[in-house]
Specification:
nine-stranded mixed β-sheet; binds adenosine-5'-diphosphate; alpha+beta; 620 residues
């Protein structure tokens, strides 16, 4: 056992005595389970795909099995055994109950990769090839129990203009405490709204904040439509056909009046800078439209219905860097249902045409989720449950998810130029920020996803067990992805990295002096929309480039439940949507890209809206 490593683990597990890197995979409460009982519990009283094992004494070990697996894999059993160093103790499934009286503990996912990590002792709370980052565990205790603070770890966080309980508890549970107001030695800042530029300018290398400068350009409704309209003008409406036709008043009032007079359509009217369904209504006449401060979108009147109810998806997207651009999608999210049967446009109440939780929780028909493990019941589901239903119904949803990834990338590309410049101007280090965005997606009855809006600070409230399960893991994985370095790596860290000369300005200078041909080659662009073969990459050997690839690979290893969607095998297909060619993006495109063959799928293929299907999809 490495003493340094143990130190990190004890920081990550302040309530427990230090354990080894392998052992840190498990969530410990107080005592000792036995492998035999893990087996029997799994086969008798739990649903086949999930197993939650706890001991009478409130010690728990939470394990998730792959669906097909009958028993825990030997590697896991062995580790559990070693961990607890006991042979037999009676297992009992105990359930911690939250406000709703529901079980709120769940099991941490074991992917094949994690299993291998455990086997090879390279799992969480360890360092990756000599480069160490903190790995966060999700907060799984009831939200009405505050984590015990560990005052000795020297990890600080700061909350500004918000106090999100889940963020606070996750950080405190992982050994962080709130920084005193007069101290600037925090590692993570969670900021309620856009961050002032002077805050960015004062950041140290090790500090992480949760917004990029000017990311609000896609999260304010009017700005998002303005930016997407710009992309439609530049690249064609076909490429950006995932947003309904939208106008902003007062500036587009004339055009809107014309449209409303000539088209027999219903419009949905939303305040430009509002959320949670506040102030939204449907309109058919121009006289009903407020004079200013609103966006007016064509109402999508053919939503896919489940048991007659409209629903939308909350999709979580993380951006870790704009230079090079790196975007991730989270493996799970929420499905939010309306609470009154859909009867077509204009009829029925807000409970019929709005899917916001904040609206529908007041409906008498609202059904609260009471058990995180029953994620396909009630008015809020998980994506996993929805996908299971799609499968049962014979709906191939792969295309839907590919399109959602495409929507996320193209939407972010609509502000890439703006944010890139703001980062260049205000960020001392390229990796100071991480952004978690909540994309609201509506699926119509042709199985086409539509982007409704993007949220800057997606709700992290944990009103129901399903919220805490999904958001708890999401936040732990987000902080892990952020790449927080242990305290002992901070000092001198800046200097060391300066020496590595990840200096974009110098790189650009070198790049600009190359001839056009060489420049294109170096940047990885060619005009056939194909990346260069790996052979050509031999030419690229500068330290910056190696550094970028290394940093990208390390980050990839920390991805947890995130899937990287940019750069990816097909990211070359997005090169035309960039305001400018960026060498670092080109480098990664070449590194991770595969030549895209026409007609072979891939999310960047511009998709045409399928014609209206006369037999609409409906799920009973
Ligand atoms: P808010 O930020 O207030 O939640 P949204 O843009 O997310 O505003 O809209 C709220 C809800 O209204 C959505 O969750 C969705 O159910 C419905 N909605 C919004 N835009 C449309 C649209 N163009 N067509 C159909 N329904 C929509």
């Amino acid at each position: 056992m490495d003493p340094e490593l143990d130190n990190i683990i004890s920081i990550l597990n302040p309530k427990t005595t230090p354990v080894s890197s392998t052992q840190a995979r498990f969530r410990i409460r107080n005592s000792k389970p036995s492998p035999n009982n893990i087996r029997s519990r799994q086969s008798h009283s739990l649903p086949p795909q999930k197993s939650q094992v706890q001991v009478k004494t409130e010690k728990s070990i939470d394990v998730k099995l792959d669906e097909e697996e009958e028993e825990l894999p030997d590697s896991v059993i062995q580790n559990i055994n070693e961990f607890y160093k006991v042979e037999d103790e009676e297992f009992k499934k105990t359930v911690t109950t939250g406000k709703t009286g529901a079980p709120i503990l769940w099991m941490r996912h074991f992917t094949k990769r994690e299993e291998n990590d455990i086997k090879n002792e390279t799992g969480v709370a360890t360092w990756i090839k000599g480069k160490r980052f903190l790995v966060f565990r999700p907060y799984i205790d009831p939200m009405n129990i505050q984590p015990k603070l560990n005052l000795e770890t020297n990890y600080f966080f700061r909350m500004m203009h918000s106090d999100v309980k889940l963020i606070r508890y996750t950080l405190e549970d992982n050994g962080f405490i709130e920084a005193p107001p007069n101290k600037n030695n925090w590692t993570i800042m969670w900021h309620g709204g856009p961050i002032k530029m002077n805050v960015y300018q004062a950041l140290s290398k090790y500090q992480k904040v949760n917004h990029f400068p000017r990311s609000y350009e896609i999260t304010r409704k009017d700005l998002m439509y303005k930016n997407l309209a710009k992309m439609q003008v530049l690249y064609g409406t076909k490429a950006y056909d995932f947003v309904p036709k939208t106008f902003i008043v007062p500036q587009d009032a004339g055009q809107l009046e014309f449209e409303m007079a000539n088209e027999d359509t219903v419009w949905i009217v939303k305040p430009s800078a509002s959320s949670q369904g506040k102030g939204i209504f449907l309109a058919t006449k121009f006289s009903e439209i407020p004079k200013s401060g609103h966006v007016i979108s064509q109402y999508i009147d053919n939503p896919l219905l489940i048991q007659g109810l409209k629903f939308d998806l909350r999709v979580y997207i993380a951006i870790t860097c704009f230079n090079p651009l790196r975007i991730y999608i989270y493996k799970d999210g929420l499905v939010r249902f309306a609470t009154q049967k859909y009867q077509g446009t204009g009829k029925g109440s807000r409970f019929m045409y709005l899917t916001n939780y904040s609206v529908n929780k007041f409906s008498t028909n609202f059904v609260e989720n009471t058990n995180a493990l029953e994620d396909g019941k009630g008015s809020k589901w998980s994506h996993t449950a929805l996908r299971k239903l799609f499968k049962q119904e014979g709906i191939d949803d792969t295309k839907i998810w590919e399109k959602i990834k495409d929507i996320a990338i193209k939407t972010i590309l609509s502000i890439e130029g703006i944010v890139f410049s703001a980062c260049e101007m205000h960020l001392p280090y390229r990796n100071n920020c991480i952004e978690l965005l909540g994309f609201d997606i509506l699926i119509d009855d042709n199985l086409n996803p539509w982007l409704l809006e993007v949220n800057l600070s997606p709700s992290l409230n944990c009103d129901a067990p399903i919220d805490q399960k999904i958001k708890g893991e999401l936040i732990a994985d987000l902080f892990t992805l952020a790449g927080v370095v242990p305290t002992d790596q901070r000092n001198g860290g800046d200097k060391a990295n300066e020496n590595k000369a990840l200096n974009y300005a110098a790189y650009m200078e070198q790049f600009m002096t190359l001839s056009n041909k060489k420049k294109n080659k170096k940047a990885g662009w060619n005009f056939d929309n194909k990346p260069y073969s790996s052979e050509s990459l031999k030419d690229i050997d500068s330290r910056e480039e190696k550094g970028i690839i290394k940093e990208t690979n390390y980050e990839y290893k920390r991805r947890g439940g995130f899937e990287r969607i940019f750069p990816s095998e097909i990211s070359i297909n997005y090169k035309n949507f960039f305001e400018r060619e960026r060498p670092y993006n080109a480098l990664l495109c070449n590194k991770f890209g595969k030549i895209h063959r026409k007609g072979q799928g891939g999310s960047a293929v511009i998709y045409r809206k399928p014609p209206r299907n006369p037999s609409k999809t409906q799920i009973e």
